[in-house]
């Protein structure tokens, strides 16, 4: 079993950068892919990106080129660095764990979820 906890959210201005952290417990953490999703009020949870156990990454079209995911398996941590933040990036950001073979966009394939961290981007 894996438990996940996000941190690092806050209030930033448009154009700023912010790094979110996802701390994981569990000895098998390194074998999981970790995805990031975000959910704005009244909207569906949106795929942001995913890093496989191998370190390869996928990103959603809306964040490609601005967001980067990396992981530190020795520390059981995954990070989401967000550059050039936009007001439409205001949302609760979640990390989630799945098999490497899961379609990264498929929320149902993520077995474990964190509680989320709020990011607010002011214009």
Protein architecture, described:
This protein has 123 residues and is mainly beta. The protein is built from no helices and 11 strands. It has strands at residues 3-7, 10-13, 18-25, 33-39, 46-51, 57-59, 67-72, 77-82, 91-98, 110-113, 117-122. The strands form 2 sheets. Strands 2, 4, 5, 6, 9, 10 and 11 form a 7-stranded mixed β-sheet that branches. A hairpin with a 4-residue loop joins strand 7 and strand 8. The termini are far apart. The model has no long low-confidence stretch (mean pLDDT 96).
Low-pLDDT segments: none
- What is the share of helical residues? under 10%
Secondary-structure element pattern, one letter each: EEEEEEEEEEE
Distinct helical segment count = 0
Features:
mainly beta, 123 residues, 4-stranded antiparallel β-sheet, 7-stranded mixed β-sheet
Question: Short description, anyone?
Answer:
The chain has 123 residues and is an all-beta fold. Helix content is 0%, strand content 51%. Strands 2, 4, 5, 6, 9, 10 and 11 form a seven-stranded mixed beta sheet that branches. Strands 1-3-8-7 form a four-stranded antiparallel beta sheet, with no helix packed on it.
């Amino acid at each position: 079993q894996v438990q996940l906890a996000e941190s690092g959210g806050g209030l930033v201005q448009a154009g700023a950068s912010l790094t979110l952290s996802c701390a994981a417990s569990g000895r098998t953490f390194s074998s999981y892919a970790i995805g990031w999703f975000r959910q704005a009020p009244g909207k569906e949870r949106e795929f942001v990106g995913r890093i496989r156990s191998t370190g390869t990454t996928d990103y959603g079209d809306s964040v490609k080129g601005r967001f980067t995911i990396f992981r530190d398996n020795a520390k059981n941590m995954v990070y989401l660095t967000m550059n050039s933040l936009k007001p439409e990036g205001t949302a609760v950001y979640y990390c989630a764990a799945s098999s490497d073979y899961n379609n990264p966009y498929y929320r149902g394939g993520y077995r474990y979820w964190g509680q989320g961290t709020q990011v607010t981007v002011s214009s």
